[in-house]
UniProtKB/TrEMBL annotation, chain A:
The chain crosses the membrane at residues 36-57, 102-125, 137-157, 163-180, 219-244, 264-287. Keywords: Cell membrane, Membrane, Transmembrane, Transmembrane helix, Transport. This is Peptide/nickel transport system permease protein. Belongs to the binding-protein-dependent transport system permease family. It is found in: Cell membrane. The lineage of its organism: Bacteria, Bacillati, Actinomycetota, Actinomycetes, Geodermatophilales.
Automatic annotation (TrEMBL), chain B:
One of its GO terms (cellular component) is plasma membrane. It is found in: Cell membrane. This is Peptide/nickel transport system ATP-binding protein/oligopeptide transport system ATP-binding protein. Signal peptide: none annotated. GO terms for biological process: peptide transport. The lineage of its organism: Bacteria, Bacillati, Actinomycetota, Actinomycetes, Geodermatophilales. NCBIfam families: oligo_HPY.
TrEMBL record, chain C:
The chain crosses the membrane at residues 36-57, 128-148, 169-189, 209-227, 265-289, 309-335. The lineage of its organism: Bacteria, Bacillati, Actinomycetota, Actinomycetes, Geodermatophilales. Keywords: Cell membrane, Membrane, Transmembrane, Transmembrane helix, Transport. It is a multi-pass membrane protein. Signal peptide: none annotated. GO terms for biological process: transmembrane transport. The keyword Methyltransferase does not apply. Residues 122-328 form the ABC transmembrane type-1 domain. Pfam families: BPD_transp_1, BPD_transp_1_N. It is found in: Cell membrane. Belongs to the binding-protein-dependent transport system permease family. This is Peptide/nickel transport system permease protein.
Amino acid sequence: MAVVEPAPSFSLSPEVDEAEARAGGRGRRWRSQLGTWIPAGMIAFVLVACFLGPTLLSLPSPVGGSVLESNQPAFSPGHVLGTDPNGNDILSRLLHGGQSSLWIALAVNLLGLVVGGTLGALSGYVGGWVDTAIMRVLDVLIAFPSLVLTLAVAQALGPSMTNTIFALAFFSIPAFARLARSAVLRLREMPFMAAAQLAGTSPSRMLFKHLAPNIAPQLITFGMLGMGIVIIIEGALSFLGLGIPDPAPSWGNMVATGQLSLSATPMLVVWPSLALLVTVLAFNLLGENLRARWSGR
Amino acid sequence: MSSKRTAAFPAEDATVSEGVIVPETAGRHRPATAASPGEPLLVVEDLRVQFTRGGRKINAVNGLSYELAPGSMLAIIGESGSGKSVSSRALMGLLPPTAKISGSVRFDGRDLLGLSEREMQSLRGGDIAMVFQDPARSLNPTMKIGAQITEAVRLHSDLDKKGAQARAVELLKLVRLPAAERRFHEYPHQLSGGMRQRVMIAIALAGEPRLLIADEATTALDVTTQAQIMELLVELQQRLGMAVIMISHDLGLAASYAQDVVVMYAGRAVEYAPTKVLFANVRMPYTHALLGAIPALDREPHSLFEVTPGQPPDLSALPKGCPFRPRCSNATDQCLEMPPFTEHDPEHWFACWHPVGSGTGKHTANGEQR
Amino acid sequence: MTATATPRVPVSRDPRVSPLSRLTASPVLRLVVKRLLMAIPIMLGVTVLTFWVLSLIPGNAAQQLLGPEATPEDIALLEQQLGLDKPGVVRYFDWLQGAVTGDLGNSLVSRQPVSEILSARLPVTAELVFLAFVVSLVLAVPVALLAAHKPGGVMDRISMMISTLGLSVANYVLALLLVLVFAVSLGWLPAIGYTPLEDGLWANLRGMILPSAAIGFPLFCYYTRFLRGDLVDQMQQEEYVTTARAKGVGSWAVLIKHAFRNSSFGLITIVGLNLGALIGGTVIIEQIFALPGIGQMLLQAINTRDFVVVQAAVVIFALVAVVANLVVDLLYAVLDPRIRYGSR
């Protein structure tokens, strides 16, 4: 009767006592909910604004403005945030720039998640020389200064959105791979893995049915933090003129061109900076919160 | 053997009531009430500890009461989760601030629960000291043994650094750590488990405590070492005249060393008696179960085996009435009401509607053979 | 009397053992040798990768130097002079041969020896990184201690808010905002430019304050967060903390003498791992503030296809990362008694 014990029971070892103390009650739980929903809401807002905003607000094109309309102040008719020296609507450039930042960040992280995650999981699961070989290559990539690598790749392939994605993937893939590998190594010790293996589960089924679902939450959480990092680095590439090529807008190149007239028109730098900050902050907050929840389990 | 032990003992000439091992120069002052005989050193009354976790209230200790005479040894026995460790940490003020503690703990006439953090701090390691379960984790891995003891000595005496170090070496000798002078300069990981626990005891003795709480102090050690550490504790207890609370899940260990035993279940004392009285006549079915499957003539042969399985109850959702009811073979509808914890027999307290072994002397053989 | 284990003496003091074998028996030394051996393939990999990536970049230094109007014959001649006509594998091994003997070659553009360029530029980057490091660490430790003393308290919340914000701001954005406030609006500090140390310490430092703050502030936030988290973990999960409290040690002393002592090992690791990323981050900051450091040199060299110089910069960056990791391991070994005595 009492062989299977369904009732949850707390062992009050000191560790658990402290964990309880830290978990700290209903208020904390409510805050943790809020900690997830506020950044999620911020991200949703940024996504809607960037992808639907230009159409909904029927904003002018981000490029090809008339010099006659250059440097208009904020709240001037038709240009809520004013225009830049080329006469382009700043809000429109901001939102369109956000589109490319977000696309690039998403693509780079997806590439990292799929390619890096698979490589790392394979490396950890198979072990042996496959593991050694994959990890040595990744060691080299990690020792390589990431910005230098992306700079060189961006130079080699020429500035464009696709090339930026490939350049940045060079450094998201090893990061994801390392994480996936260590997660798999930990999972491998679990009894259910041995059970599945003893039941004669095929390796591919092991990898995709047993390992993948278990490491996915961790990788996705890491991807949230990765979104922020990629947005910042993409901005850096564009800032150096190696990312999104002019005149197409991106937050990075908006900051870079704004820098040229920093003292005269500081708002040209402030707007894209704010957009960068808010977006990265939202992804970081969400990632941190998911991570705290994940590790708290 | 005994002369050998005495030789290792540094300050034989000091008086017992002064805490023995400390030279007069340490200048420690004890309140006059300390040594008055007959009056208990520690009185715990209706102690309750509650944690809140994820909106659920966890009642770790639910009205624990016991007394401890100066210089005596009390064993608190229970499974993990019975509240034995939490209750002792509560009286040391070592629980996180989120724990809700109520009831009263009077130590030497002072209510410990009402003390400020500063007052508690001078009491901790001074009058009340504690030794923990896992000596591997309880010592700071990055500090030398000597520094860890010296720190405790300096906190509770006016000795200067040199004096405190000398005193630390004395303490290491007192707990009979071999090659004390050399060990003084070593790190915890260079010592074996038994030696580490000796160091822990030396740290605890640094403030010449009147109460030493040994929280599963021998659980992590192998059987031989366990016996040695227990012998050491008993010897020190007698020599220094300190009271000891021994927290353990091992009823046998309690039977061999303690004068009194409290058995805890689900944060409650379920049986409390002098060791001799208890083992002469175990009354509470839970204690009975702990003692093992005892063949009792007036019970169904397999009835006790149905008691032992199962787990301690969920402390955030305690069953109605007696918490042991779901696992107890004697349980009836009456047990849905909480049995009072009272002195049913002289000196023998327990909380049960249907106690076992009401006759006398029935379990003596089992109790004594430990 | 006691049946405890025989004492483990870490390093043999037996006079019969020769000093050499005593050295090789030392766990620290073994660690150093092991890590050095591991660093070699990593460094080789980095240089091969750089050569390969650079070979993908269209155009070469000869074309860049001679400009668009040059005839194919002129370009071919210059390529021959610069050694660019040889196959990549040959060029790599030529380069490697020189590099191993300490000769990093000559710049394809200025024909200056790379070592000379480096010796002029390295101090600028080193100063920048050093200042950022020292200031961020010196500030992060007390702030983290204050925050960890009362988790959830006012100091904790404020410092966590600031550090979350600081970790979300890109360093180039921060750099421009700092320039906007302290150079453009307030006029306290120069917006760009570098003054050599020979022209006075203060003049030199004035120019370094904003760039090192732009690099150091996110670092400060990172260290603060890490240290605070680790301290809180130590305080809440480690039994030795309970022992210290049970001894009667006060809460600040437990935090500083016990928890921080243990947390500092983790902090060292983080600091070391960071150094590689940090030095990569100087590229953009040196560009913004027009500091003549390695990062600026790298950007210019990429633009002029001066691959010899690019290669040197990458080697320097990777070397810093690898050496930093090595130093961290060594520091660990020297500071952490558990490793020092080889029982981990």
